[in-house]
C-alpha cells in the first residue's frame, strides 16, 4: 500500500471521527494492514501527523491555486474560478475537524494559521491585481474567507447554492454591479 493511501485514510478518519480517533490501531484496522507497514512509511505517529498535515495543506489549498493559475491569468476570472472550485469540492467535515484539532495541538494550529493566511493572501493578491487598492484587497480577501469559514460552521452548514449566491452578490456589489 502506498503512502498516499495511509494519508487518504487519515483524512477519512479525521473527517468522520475527529482527531482523537486518529490512531495507528484505527488506521491499520481500517486498511487491513499491519503496524509494520505504518512504521515503514512514517516511522511513528509524529512522522505520520507531519505527513498528514502537509497532505491536507496540499489538497485543501495548493491544488486549487495550481488549477486556477494554469487556467487563466485574468484576476477577476481567477477569483471566480477559485470560488467555484472550492464550492465544488466535496466538504466532508475535514475543514471543521482540522480546526477542532488545531485548538488542541500547537503543530496543527500553526499549520491552520499558515493555511488561513495563505488562502487570504491569495484572494487578496487576485483582488489587488484586478483593482489595485491594497487596503480594499486585504479586506476583500478576509471577507471572502470569513464567509467560507462561517458557512461551514453554521448548523446546518449553508448549502452550496446559497453560499454561491452569497459570493456572487458580494462580488457583484464590490465590482460595481447592482444585480445579485
Mean pLDDT: 93
The secondary structure category is mainly alpha
Instruction: State the order of secondary-structure elements, H for helix, E for strand.
Output: HHHHHHHHH
The helix content, as a percent range, equals: over 70%
Unreliable spans are none
In this structure, how is the largest beta sheet organized? none
What is the global morphology?
A: elongated
Report strand %.
Answer: under 5%
The rounded Rg comes to 18 Å
Distance between the termini: 49 Å
Helix count equals 9
Strand tally is: 0
Pfam family, one: TetR_N
Domain HTH tetR-type: 9-46
Keywords: DNA-binding
Organism: Actinokineospora xionganensis
How would you describe this protein?
By secondary structure, this protein is mainly α. It is 79% helix and 0% strand. It is built from 9 helices and no strands. It has helices at residues 3-17, 24-31, 35-42, 45-71, 75-88, 94-102, 106-131, 134-153, 160-174. Helix 6 crosses helix 7 (106-131) and helix 7 packs across helix 8 (134-153). The N and C termini lie far apart (49 Å). The mean pLDDT is 93.
Amino acid at each position: 500500500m502506498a503512502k498516499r493511501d495511509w494519508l487518504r485514510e487519515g483524512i477519512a478518519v479525521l473527517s468522520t471521527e475527529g482527531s482523537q480517533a486518529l490512531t495507528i490501531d484505527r488506521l491499520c484496522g481500517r486498511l487491513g494492514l499491519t503496524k509494520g507497514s505504518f512504521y515503514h512509511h512514517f516511522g511513528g505517529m509524529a512522522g505520520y501527523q507531519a505527513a498528514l498535515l502537509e497532505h491536507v495543506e496540499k489538497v485543501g489549498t495548493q491544488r486549487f491555486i495550481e488549477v486556477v493559475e494554469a487556467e487563466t491569468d485574468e484576476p477577476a476570472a481567477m477569483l471566480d474560478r477559485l470560488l467555484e472550485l472550492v464550492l465544488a469540492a466535496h466538504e466532508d467535515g475535514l475543514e471543521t475537524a482540522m480546526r477542532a484539532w488545531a485548538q488542541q495541538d500547537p503543530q496543527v494550529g500553526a499549520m491552520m494559521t499558515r493555511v488561513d493566511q495563505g488562502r487570504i493572501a491569495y484572494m487578496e493578491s487576485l483582488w489587488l491585481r484586478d483593482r489595485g487598492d491594497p487596503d480594499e484587497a486585504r479586506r476583500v480577501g478576509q471577507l471572502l474567507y470569513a464567509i467560507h469559514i462561517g458557512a461551514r460552521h453554521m448548523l446546518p452548514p449553508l448549502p452550496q447554492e446559497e453560499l454561491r449566491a452569497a459570493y456572487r452578490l458580494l462580488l457583484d456589489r464590490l465590482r460595481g454591479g447592482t444585480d445579485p
